[in-house]
Amino acid sequence: MVRIRAVETLIVNAKLRNWVFVKVLTDEPGLYGWGEATLEWKTRAVAGAVEDLSQLLIGRDPLDTERLWQLMNRGQFFQGGAVTMSALSGIDQALWDIKGRFLGTPCWQLLGGLARNRVRMYDHLGGGDASVVYGAASGDNFAQAALESVAEGFTALKILAVPMGLALPTADGIRRAAETMASVRSAVGPDVQIMVDLHGRTTPAGAIAYGHALAEYDPWFFEEPCQPGNPETLADVARALPFAVATGERLISLQEFRDHLAARSCAVLQPDVCHVGGPTAVRKIAAMAETWNVPLAPHNPLGPIATVVNQHIGFATPNFLIQEVMRADVPWREDVLQGILPIIDGHVFPPTAPGWGIEIDETAAVSHGYQPEPLIDVDGPDGALLDW
Ligand SMILES: [Mg+2]
């Protein structure tokens, strides 16, 4: 029997966030696995949570992914929370990697085999007014960034068109959002899907007002119109808009996803494989969503391990729609991770290497050591804190 020997974290600063890589080592020489547990502004807490959870794992069989998931979640008297579940997510990904390496097969095969022969990707263009956080495109240069993405083969992209602001939108806010959306739509034409991430900035009434103003530019979906926590009010938004609402990047537990599906709060679910509990949990969320005819568009502005893990899940998941990637943060992703799948005409194709099919260059990774993430404190016109 293979046994887990050690669990390590490797923190890589990628400017906007610290990637938390998790390495699970076994007592079999050369057999280990990689996962990612990135959780912005809580990097050291997650690394500590990985260390806490590792006590449960040493000496156990890494192939028992479900049993170990239950042990790390239900086996703890206090369950869940973003920090612990992100740590668990990174470990779970690493255990699946070990399983694939041990069996000599790619993880998409273990997750169900090919439900499709390619995975469609979309490009996250950045933050507009939140450009201090997200880098990349802002305001007037969204249209230029959109054209560059399309020139590289993407047929779908996401922008943050709606500004931070008051609880109810002003004419100025509506005008700015419409101008941004109009400029991107006119740049890329009618056949590119444009998703709009509201980043939890608006109230339900505000989201509906922005939705009516942007509808003529054909948004594919409105993402996270409101702060998480209330499926019923999000359902009000979903019912009021003539296009889809997506949410889920800040939902953690299976029960939260169930509650959103039961409330019919969204047409698209966006679980994050680095927060919900890794592939073991995403598979269950996908199965729940399948019963409500809701597809997945997994959230992923994170690091390169998370991107590859999401792609494997996309290959194997029937109710999968499209996969987010954010390429705008740092130019040296491929220095740190070998095995990034090339995006060809906006799609990636199934790799054949065992596990996730990746290797980390640990020497290159440690050259980008931990740095505190940029702090965000955005004031509204009256000095009150804004949701950004
Ligand atoms: Mg988002």
UniProtKB/TrEMBL annotation:
Keywords: Lyase. Its EC number is 4.2.1.6. InterPro entries: DgoD-like, Enolase-like_C_sf, Enolase-like_N, Enolase_C-like, Mandelate_racemase_C, Mandelate_racemase_N_dom. One of its GO terms (molecular function) is galactonate dehydratase activity. Residues 139-244 form the Mandelate racemase/muconate lactonizing enzyme C-terminal domain. Pfam families: MR_MLE_C, MR_MLE_N. The keyword Nuclease does not apply. NCBIfam families: PRK14017.1 (NF010624). This is Galactonate dehydratase.
